[in-house]
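[agent] plan:
  1. take the single chain provided in the ticket
  2. run structure prediction with default settings
  3. attach structure tokens to the ticket
  4. add a short note for the reviewer (M.T.)
[agent] executing step 1
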Amino acid sequence: MVTTLKQPSSLIHEIRLELVGTWYLFKFSETLQLRMESLLDKKKADQLTLEEIAELDAISELDRIFTHMNAMLAAQYAN
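[agent] step 2 finished; step 3 output follows
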């Protein structure tokens, strides 16, 4: 069985900007946030399929990118 790596860009429709206080930050949609939490729970239970591993990898990559971008925005807002 061949599993195709899911690209983070395939989740672009699940990205939004949210006003947090006086700052706009990149956030996942509620649907994507819940999916990530579900996949993390399955990972803890060692129950992920190969397809779910690829999906979680893509979501995790987006999460790392957003964390970095939001940190950059926070630094800009602080100045």
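[agent] step 4 note for reviewer: The radius of gyration is 15 Å.
[agent] ticket updated
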